[in-house]
Amino acid sequence: MEILLLLSTVALVQGSGFSDEVVPDVSLYEPNTVIVRFAAPTGDGPALCSASVNAHSALGADVADDLSDLVPGMQVVELPEGVSVEEAVDYYSRLSSVEYAEPNYYVHALKEPDDPYFEKLWGMKNTGQILQDGQSFEGMLIYYNGQAGTPGADMSIPGAWNITTGSSNVTIAVVDTGVMYTHTDLAANIWTNTREIPDNGIDDDGNGYVDDVHGWDFVSEDNNPMDFNGHGTHCAGTIAGVGNDSVGVAGVMWTAKIMPVRVLDTQGYGTVYHSIAAIKYATAMGADVISCSFGGGEGSEAYRDAIRASSALVVCAAGNDGTNNDAFPMYPANYNSPNVLSVAALDNQDKFAIFSNFGKISVHVTAPGVGILSTIPIWSAAYQDEITESSVNDWKTLSYLESANWSGDYMSGTERYALGVSGVNVSLTYSDTPFIDLEDTILEFVTAYTLKEGTDRLQILVSTTDFRNYPSYNDMINNDSCYIADVVTGSSHREIVSRIVDLDRYGTMLGEDPLYIGYLYYSKSPDSFAWLDSFTITRYTEPEEGYAYYSGTSMATPMVSGVAGLIKSVNRSLTAEETKQILIDSVDKIPSLEEKVSSGGRVNASRAVLMARSTLQARTTLDLNENGIDADIGDVAYVYHCARNTLSEPDLRADYVEPRGIVDLADARYISDCYVGTTVPAGNL
């Protein structure tokens, strides 16, 4: 650490061309010209004109424009057919008569997208917007509502867009609850397996998955990774909602390929096996980045090994418990793998989100994660009862009483339905109208309760038989046509909570017959109670398109996944480890984050993309002062590009500074009192 701090202002000399390993994005510069500056002739050296003519002639190039009257020795060179920009830059940079050669980069007007909701995306451009904290998680729905932002407390996304808005050659796998791939703001950016012929029932590409045209659903084991929760679609919209299309939001990447991989069910739960299978699938199908906005406290060596075996950068949410991951790990974010990047969340004032996990060692970076607006699917309710005084007439009551004081009824003045009162042994409230065709449906009920653990409980029952046909309580719960779908006990601690039951699975288990649904209240304690506030059945068929504000490290993670995609857009040759390092090295340092995350900062997209683009050129330092410095393998330094005017100036001058990242200082050489340089092969930064 002392070496790191000591060398935080070191420098690196300009580059000397492109390496054969580099595969740059040619959309960044004109494909048939380069800019060359020849050095001023010294002593008996060849005249400038002669040197340039000889250089161009050997390559077969022509001078498109001579700018020597502005900058001595500067020319725009038109390349012959068959010579790439990379080859030309490398060729000219090797000539002793050339001071530098570089691509003829495109420039364009600084333009923000015309998407109507862009102004609400404070994480990309914070102008002080008032925060709206939407659906996040229990207890956190309104904490941040109305908080004004701090202008500039964002990820500098528009600055990155001045260089690249993404690439259709970059694939981001969203391993989550699925993705609504039909959403207008996503459809153009959804990944397609071009080696698969749709709907022919054949595994055309031989990867083990039949008709996996738009990814795979490891929950239902089919080729339809549709999102039945909303979480995955929200993440996908943040990563790559189609930009500048006059619709909805803009993602961090305007153009990309989102690969939907479903591993979490309608309630957001999945298994380690499904996650491992998803990592394997995404890697095999060419994902550059895998975005994982989920986690758990139990580690798995198998899961860790699967991630380590992947060539993709795996960006993971740190967790929403407000705890220290260094002491209480969250997986997969805590897996010690060089391709794992762990992300914590900030609010719109650059403050650590109150729910976000942290870890000075195990959590790497932060990103906006409160009140993030993005795409979601919306489903209409197949049945909904908000429980009113009139609607309770639709509910029927059966009681198996030890006392006669059962009075399941509407609670006047509270707009709630009492499921039980003190002294009741067993009572059942149910709908006497059967529900038909419950494929892809869930039941959500909103309740509050205090139930003595060990004796008292609230059970949700589904049955293919009208509950009145069960003579007794034991006949009901022991009958093959009735199933306990959920059990509630303990206390909701005065909170109103939402409970979810997957009806699809019970409809299948019970033969897909019409189902009756009931709430059975069992109590022996005079202090127990439970009440029902709303009852909704939602059918997950064809969703409508929507947008919503979510909060969590789940929202910060796709922000960073999108920036990783921008990095890969400008330099495809970067490995997962190199991309991770650029994201870490390019953060905006924030003093309050020094003890929270290892980088001590928030991801800066503009700086990260500049750093990635700079790695397109191989770099060589010159030992100008002829006096060496000892450096061991593994020593690191922050490296900056510094300009010099002419070869006659022996020392570099830091009048132009651009962060380059951390490099190995083996073979380093001392240049002057302020600078240390090293040789860095292209693509290894």
What is the element layout, followed by pairings?
Blueprint: H1 2-6, E1 29-38, H2 48-59, E2 62-66, E3 74-78, H3 85-93, E4 98-105, H4 157-161, E5 166-176, E6 216-217, H5 231-240, E7 255-262, H6 272-284, E8 289-292, H7 301-308, E9 313-317, E10 340-346, E11 365-368, E12 372-378, E13 381-385, E14 395-400, E15 410-411, E16 416-420, E17 426-431, E18 441-451, E19 457-463, H8 473-477, E20 482-488, E21 490-491, E22 497-502, H9 503-509, E23 516-522, E24 529-539, E25 544-550, H10 553-570, H11 576-585, E26 588-589, E27 601-602, H12 605-614, E28 636-643, E29 653-664, E30 669-670, E31 676-677
Helix pairs in contact: 5-10, 6-7, 10-12, 11-12
In short:
This protein is an alpha+beta fold. It is 16% helix and 27% strand. A seven-stranded parallel β-sheet has the order 6-7-5-8-9-10-11, sandwiched between helices.
Please describe what this structure looks like.
This protein is α+β, with helices and mostly antiparallel strands and 685 residues long. The chain contains twelve helices and 31 strands. The strands form eight sheets. Strands 6-7-5-8-9-10-11 form a seven-stranded parallel β-sheet, with helices on both faces. Strands 13, 15, 16, 18, 21, 22 and 24 form a seven-stranded antiparallel β-sheet that branches. The chain has a five-stranded antiparallel β-sheet with strand order 14-17-23-19-20. Strand 6, helix 5 and strand 7 form a beta-alpha-beta unit. The protein is elongated and about 105 Å long. 48% of the residues are buried.
Identify low-pLDDT runs. Answer: 1-26, 135-141, 617-685
The total of helices stands at: 12
Order of strands side by side in the largest beta sheet?
A: 6-7-5-8-9-10-11
Radius of gyration over all CA atoms, rounded: 31 Å
Shape: elongated
- Please give the number of β-strands: 31
Question: Separation of termini?
Answer: 19 Å
How would a crystallographer describe the biggest sheet?
A: 7 strands, parallel
Structural class: alpha+beta
Average of per-residue pLDDT values: 78
Q: Provide the helix percentage.
A: 10-25%
Q: What proportion of the residues form beta strands (DSSP E)?
A: 25-35%
